[in-house]
Amino acid sequence: MHRGKGMKFVGDSRVPVNRKPNIPKDYSEYPGKTEAFWPNFLLKEWMVGAVFLIGYLCLTIAHPSPLEKIADPSDTAYIPLPDWYFLFLYQLLKYTYASGPYNVIGAFIIPGLAFGALMLAPFIDRGPERRPSKRPLATGFMLLAIAGIFYLTWESVANHDWEAAEQQGKIVAEAEIDKEAEGYKIYEAQGCISCHGGELAGGAGAPALIDTGLSPEEVAKIAKEGQGAMPAGIFKGTDEELQKLSEFISSIESK
């Protein structure tokens, strides 16, 4: 075998005599197509970032966060609602096959299978094609996932009681509640706390009992005959307990 031009034998292989380092060309060798990272490109990135930051700050000032009142663990009528990107998972827990005794299915198994399939997608579909039409398996699973997320999110928004949620989260005036008072103990024993809350701040299905402006007689009448969403006959105590309860509620005023 003859020795090739510019080559020499090293064992059984041929390598170039003169090796050139693999150094990329300078950006100046491509006029009009590239630019220096510092300061040209980085300055443009900073300017775009500053515009988005100022716009975001303007939105936060114009539309403050919708804060709600302090959480009340005793308010069993509270309707929870997670952030928008978790609404599809929240809706999933409303179905019978994924809630109650099957809660683990909706909370772990179904989401685990869905996200696990996304993680395994690169290993399942290993074809060289890049067009969606040439990758029916990956395209089909992705379209199914997007359709499922959109549907569950829409169902969660459409079935949520927004008026009740607005009322339950409304920040009301605070009052000093004497929880050792006899009237409060009657209020708690009669189950009023489940709707009106431990701080008497109301909830999704009941108004606040602070600054009602009602006389004890008016409060007693509502407790016996009901009003609005509150049916009649809720109070099951004696007349003496009703009087103490009505006087207690009528006397509560904000700070």
From TrEMBL:
Membrane topology: Multi-pass membrane protein
Domain annotation Cytochrome c: ranges: 178-253
Record's keyword terms, sorted: Electron transport, Heme, Iron, Membrane, Metal-binding, Transmembrane, Transmembrane helix, Transport
Residues passing through the membrane, by range: 46-64, 105-124, 136-154
Subcellular location: Membrane
Family as reported in the entry's similarity comment: Belongs to the cytochrome b family.
Name assigned to this protein: Menaquinol:cytochrome c reductase cytochrome c subunit
Lineage: Bacteria, Bacillati, Bacillota, Bacilli, Bacillales
